[in-house]
Amino acid sequence: MNTLITKIKELKQRHNALILAHYYEHGDIQDLADCVGDSLYLAQQGQKAENPVVLLAGVVFMAETVKILSPEKTVLVPDLDAGCSLVHHSPAEEYRKWRQKHPDAICVTYVNSSAAVKALSDVIVTSSNAEKIIRAIPEERTILFGPDQNLGRYLAKKTGRPMELWPGACEVHVLFSARKIFELKTLHPEARVLAHPECEDAVLKEAHVIGSTSRLLEEVKNSPAKEFIVATEPGILHQMKKARPDAKLFEAPAEGSCACNECPYMKLNTLEKIAHSLETLSPSISISPVLAEKAKIPLERMMRLTQGEVVSWPSHYVEFNL
Ligand code: 13P
Ligand code: SF4
């Protein structure tokens, strides 16, 4: 076995650590992880784990979610620069001003956000539970949705609930070309087109299935189709190929000639960095206890709604100074 993998396994055992990896990670990291999944699954696994150390091979907001839900755990990331364009597009002070303008609204925030932005929100959603959670919001309440406007627009259409949208987007998913996907579909008329809801509306209109990374993988596993055009980060193809070695998988093309649909943040993680992080127990996520307590409220509301529980909703926004 590769010596680096042997070393990681020894370090993992020494610290009783759990390794969680997102579907967009390099294949060798996915193969090494204890659990591989979408944002919701990783948050759930991180929360319920009994391990004192959790290493999250994904992006920093995912590790922050685990830390907020389980502050007693040491939560490691291989690279602290593994950010997310949606986090970069939603500075907390601007988000707060937006909230202040709509004090009676319910603020629904995508999990791809900073801890500070979560603390300003009423409920968090991921792409796999968002529809269910939006449908649980009382009809008479106005909804603010941020920071991904493409996911918000898709959800507003799907649920029939109008929403005020924050103007953020994923720099990776906006690059897919609806025109080129259309051309690929004409070459492969039997192919199922799978798209993540962070893609722009024109791309979603070409899709047969729209959903979270786990939903798209499930479609490849269960569909009788033999060809798929995949409009999300290509890391997911690692699991898709394993599940359906008989199927033809096409990466949805981007506009221009660039191969730029890899998430530059997810791809910062490497086996070397994972070994270093487990050896030094750093970098680790640190969030002030006051901020973590506040951010935990909308995250726990999300977890309860995901389980189908009934929750109470705040009647209006209460100012929270970061
Ligand atoms: P999922 O929750 O669907 O895995 O999506 C996370 C993400 O960052 C998509 O870009
Ligand atoms: Fe963020 Fe987009 Fe990367 Fe997902 S793919 S982590 S939304 S930058």
What do these coordinates show?
The chain has 3 domains: 2-82 and 267-280, 3-Layer(aba) Sandwich (Rossmann fold); 86-170 and 288-306, Rossmann fold (3-Layer(aba) Sandwich), CATH 3.40.50.10800; 173-262, NadA-like (Rossmann fold, 3-Layer(aba) Sandwich), CATH 3.40.50. Helices cover 42% and strands 15% of the residues. The protein has 15 helices and 12 strands. The protein has helices spanning 3-15, 27-32, 39-48, 60-69, 85-88, 92-101, 115-119, 130-135, 149-159, 178-187, 201-204, 213-222, 237-243, 271-280, 289-306; strands at residues 17-22, 35-37, 53-57, 74-76, 106-110, 123-125, 143-146, 163-165, 192-195, 209-210, 227-231, 248-251. A 4-stranded parallel beta sheet has the order 2-1-3-4, sandwiched between helices. A 4-stranded parallel beta sheet has the order 6-5-7-8. The protein has a 4-stranded parallel beta sheet with strand order 10-9-11-12, with helices on both faces. Helix 4 links the parallel strand 3 and strand 4 (74-76). The relative contact order is 0.17. The mean pLDDT is 97. Bound molecules: 1,3-dihydroxyacetonephosphate and iron/sulfur cluster. Residues 38-39, 112, 126-127, 170, 196, 198, 212-213 line the site of 1,3-dihydroxyacetonephosphate.
